[in-house]
Specification:
Helix content of chain B: over 70%
Helix content of chain A: over 70%
Oligomer: heterodimer
Largest sheet of chain B: 2 strands, antiparallel
Strand order of the largest sheet of chain B: 1-2
Number of helices of chain A: 1
Order of helices and strands of chain B: HEEHHHHHEEH
Shape of chain B: globular
Number of strands of chain B: 4
Structural class of chain B: mainly alpha
Radius of gyration of chain A: 23 Å
Chain lengths: 53, 233
């Protein structure tokens, strides 16, 4: 397919790749930061309980 | 994010950008003759990303199977995490293969889907791995989940080389061209260079995602462990 007909498919393919990969990275990073926050809170709670005993 | 995955992601991204430049501005367009008229196939540019994501997905599916086998032989949780992370990255790249493949099929063959050997075997491969995630989510007990998933990842990984060779066996009449043979690559040097840069960049980027996913799995496990400890104390 020549340029005038093919460009939407080519652009769609390239944009599709980067959109999916970007969403995957963002989801992973937000989950990781959520876990880190929860880990820090739990660590502090554990320290307090051990300290209280 | 650990430093190694950041370095891999940066190098991968840089190579992919260089690959885009080479694909669009250095590599010549593929030309076909239709009714005595020379037509430049702009849609062929999808090749420079479709094939790298495809090969990367197959690589990670195979790695998932190998790590699954290592888990079954050594029974170390780490290998189960490696296997799961590899399968998930392979599956994400597999979705990209399906999206780019469908667009390329429509552009070049004027249909959205064709029951061609490689397309069909790849669809079966993806459905098999969709089953892998269904299986994992349906088992609660951790060791049973790990064992079943490892066995499934090994069986499913067998599909990866089948998919690869389905496009190379003449008896199946594949529509996919055989670009790489023992005699070399059937394309001009600038095209090969653009492809190799994209291929290498995509592989490095996929490994950075794999390390990120592994970190996430391990952090999740630490969190569960800590929660248990808090309850005990």
């Amino acid at each position: 397919m020549e340029f005038k007909n093919a460009w939407p498919f080519v652009v769609g393919a390239y944009m599709g790749i980067w959109t999916v990969l970007f969403i995957y990275v963002v989801v992973m990073q937000s989950k990781l930061s959520g876990i880190k926050k929860e880990l820090a809170l739990l660590g502090k709670a554990l320290e307090r309980r051990i300290g209280a005993k | 994010m650990r430093k190694s995955s950041l370095v891999l992601a940066s190098i991968g991204m840089l190579l992919l950008l260089i690959g885009v430049y080479f694909a669009f501005f250095i590599a010549p367009e593929s030309v076909v003759e239709v009714e005595g008229k020379q037509i430049a196939l702009f849609s062929q540019k999808i090749f420079y990303f479709h094939v790298p994501v495809s090969e990367t997905s197959l690589l990670f599916f195979i790695l998932g199977g190998i790590f699954g086998g290592l888990y079954l032989s050594k029974r170390e949780r780490f290998y189960e995490q490696l296997s799961y992370a590899a399968v998930e990255v392979g599956f994400v790249f597999g979705l990209l293969v399906m999206v780019t493949g469908v667009l390329w099929t429509r552009a070049d063959w004027s249909v959205w889907w064709d029951w061609e050997p490689r397309l069909t075997t790849y669809l079966v491969l993806m459905l098999t791995y969709a089953g892998y995630f269904v299986l994992r989510s349906s088992i609660q007990e951790a060791s049973t989940k790990a064992r079943f998933s490892a066995v499934f990842s090994i069986i499913a990984a067998v599909n990866a080389p089948l998919t690869f060779f389905a496009g190379r066996l003449d008896v199946l009449k594949p529509a996919h061209p055989k670009l790489f043979t023992l005699q070399g690559a059937a394309m001009a040097d600038p095209m090969l260079l653009a492809f190799l840069i994209s291929m290498f960049g995509m592989t490095l980027f996929a490994f950075s995602l794999f390390l990120m996913r592994l970190d996430l799995l391990r952090a999740n496990e630490e969190l569960d462990y800590l929660k248990e400890q808090v309850e005990v104390v």
